[in-house]
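Milestone 3.1: sequence recovery, worked example.
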C-alpha cells in the first residue's frame, strides 16, 4: 500500500512538472529609481507604523484607565497610573513626528533630485 502512495505522488509530481510552462520576461523588469524606492518605503512605513502605533497607544490608554479604575481608593497607586499618561502622549507624538519627518525627507529628495 505504501508503494502505491509513493508511486502516485511521483506520477503527480512528474505530470505537474511536465505541465508547467516556463515564464519568459519578454518586456523585462520595470526599473525603479531611488525616489520610487524611498516613496515606497515611506508608504509601507505608514501602512505598518500608523496602525501599530494606534493599537499601542489605545492599549496603553486602556490599561492606564483600567489601573485608574482599580486604584480608586489608593491615592499613591492612582498617582503612579496617572503619571504614565504624559509618556503615552509623548510616545504618540514622537511616532507621528517620525512619520512626518520621513515624508518630509522623501519630498525633499524628490525636489532636489528633480531639479
Amino acid at each position: 500500500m505504501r508503494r502505491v502512495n509513493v508511486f502516485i505522488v511521483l506520477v503527480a509530481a512528474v505530470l505537474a512538472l511536465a505541465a508547467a510552462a516556463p515564464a519568459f520576461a519578454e518586456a523585462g523588469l520595470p526599473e525603479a529609481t531611488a525616489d520610487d524606492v524611498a516613496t515606497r518605503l515611506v508608504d509601507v512605513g505608514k501602512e505598518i507604523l500608523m496602525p501599530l502605533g494606534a493599537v499601542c497607544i489605545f492599549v496603553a490608554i486602556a490599561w492606564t484607565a483600567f489601573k485608574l479604575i482599580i486604584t480608586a481608593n489608593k491615592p499613591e497607586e492612582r498617582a503612579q497610573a496617572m503619571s504614565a499618561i504624559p509618556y503615552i502622549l509623548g510616545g504618540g507624538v514622537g511616532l507621528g513626528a517620525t512619520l512626518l519627518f520621513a515624508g518630509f525627507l522623501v519630498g525633499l529628495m524628490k525636489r532636489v533630485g528633480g531639479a
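DSSP finds four helices and no strands in the chain. The chain has a mean pLDDT of 79.
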